[in-house]
Amino acid sequence: MSSNRSIEKALDFHELTKHSYVSVRTKAHWLDWGNRPYPFKIYKNLQLLRLPHDFPKPEMDTLQALTTAQEIDGGRLDVKTLASLLFFTAGITRVKKYPEGSIYFRAAPATGALYPIEIYVVAGDVDGLDNGIYHFSPDRFGLTRIRDGDYRWELGLNSSREVWSSQASLVFTSIGWRNAWKYTERSYRHWFWDSGVMVANLLAVSSALKLGCRLLVGFVDKAVNRLVAVDGRREASILVVPLGKTSLQPVRQAEAPPLNPETQPLSRREVEYPAIYEIHEASTLADGDEVGEWVRACQTQSTEWEAAVFNPPQGISSQPLWQTILRRGSTRIFSKRPISDTQLRTILACCSGPINADFLPPRSSYISIYFIANNVEGLRPGAYFFNRVTGELELLKPGEFRRVAGYLCLEQALGADASAVFFLMTPLSKVLERMGNRGYRAVQLEAGIIAGRIYLASYGQGLGSTGLTFYDDDVTEFFSPHAKEKSNMLVVAVGVPAYKSRPGDFFLDISQHPATGTW
């Protein structure tokens, strides 16, 4: 058995990585720009298969896509549909060139635009694609083949049997150094924030393309890491997502041998932060029996986690999903202009919908949504709690809190200038008692998914949004006594941008890569 049930590990890590007014002024960390990690994983001696460029665009209305359930017995997955899912989840939509190098912005946001998350495809019955395990390369918009053959049996044995009846599965991993370069130990939280916002895109696109998918946070870490040929330390698996439905069951086979394919270094040197590896190791699951026990504990129904499903207000329409994803950025300046009460309630309805995941019982959530209304037409300024059972907006504190919102968001003007600022909170100790240390991964991931949905619902209505970091304990104190037992996971600010940005585009080939340390 693993140490997953020793929950003091997660509690200690969370305490260690909190921001405070004092900590941000006393914990100096200087960025070595000459050692910034490269944002793409480049295999040196493996074949790249180009994905088709004429993939379908998800035309469904954004708000409809966000509120449509992901059914596991949905449509059929072929290579063009797979290409669409990969592009609108992790593809490159903008390129900005600077004297020190280019930044390749993706379909989903990432903390610091550092993009630590990689995606692998375990294909067993995908029309137009040979069976195998592939790494998705957004820079060349292709798949690098790591293994030949159908490995769904081994993946399902070490996660869920749902993998066996799926055409393929995506495996999300995180390369820790990419984000730790800037954010040090706290970057472990970002593994799940950044993968969560990507998953929000994936869920919406799969709904629009009528393709079923499910999120699996419970799996045998070492086995899945071995399958996708990562070491579990420098790069580690964090999520498995079965896609599509098939009657073609995989054949039982011997365990896949370990592989160590050569890749291009990310930077001249990498710095290790032991606290990251300690919390990740403490939240691993050792074998299939432990995975099964963990999932059963997660799936136990409880009124404490109950969350109803709400529809957006009638008469609200938005852009097609693919256009919203290309338009999405992270707003850099808000105009302080108001959003409407209807727009706010639409965002809440879209972000709080069900998530088809192994760690969540049906119609449940571990995330409580609080917000500060700075300028919402039809809503009194103040601090609110969104009741996810009744749908009511409960006023906790009336008043003008722009300065407070800015302070809570690490003294950033974006928090003060936004029309509304959402704080995604959870009773962390109770979550960990239920799920062990792995609950820390799950609840951070759920917060990331909700944040990603806030992005999409905002941009779909012509608004802007941005994710922000925060002073942990000050957030809890501000929303107390209502939130006195809760910890903040993530913040998203929403409002009217002070500028008009151009939509992104389809960047499907960055043909040349610079030498290590020169990009």
Overview of the molecule:
The chain is α+β, with helices and mostly antiparallel strands and 519 residues long. It has two domains: 46-299, NADH Oxidase (3-Layer(aba) Sandwich), CATH 3.40.109.10; 305-495, NADH Oxidase (3-Layer(aba) Sandwich). Helices cover 31% and strands 18% of the residues. The protein is built from 17 helices and 16 strands. The protein has helices at 8-16, 23-26, 62-66, 79-90, 152-157, 176-183, 187-208, 221-227, 274-282, 288-299, 321-327, 341-351, 402-408, 413-417, 428-435, 438-460, 472-479, and strands spanning 48-50, 92-98, 101-106, 117-123, 132-137, 142-148, 168-175, 235-243, 339-340, 368-373, 376-377, 382-386, 393-398, 420-426, 464-468, 487-495. The strands form four sheets. A six-stranded antiparallel sheet has the order 1-6-5-4-7-8. It has a six-stranded antiparallel sheet with strand order 13-12-10-14-16-15, sandwiched between helices. The protein has a two-stranded antiparallel ribbon with strand order 2-3. α7 (187-208) packs across α16, α12 (341-351) packs antiparallel against α16 and α15 (428-435) crosses α16 (438-460). The N and C termini lie far apart (44 Å).
CATH class of the largest domain: Alpha Beta
CATH superfamily of the largest domain: NADH Oxidase
Strand content bin: 15-25%
Q: Helical proportion?
A: 25-40%
CATH topology of the largest domain: NADH Oxidase
Number of helices: 17
Task: List the domain count as a whole number.
Answer: 2
Features:
single chain, 519 residues, alpha+beta, NADH Oxidase, 6-stranded antiparallel β-sheet, globular
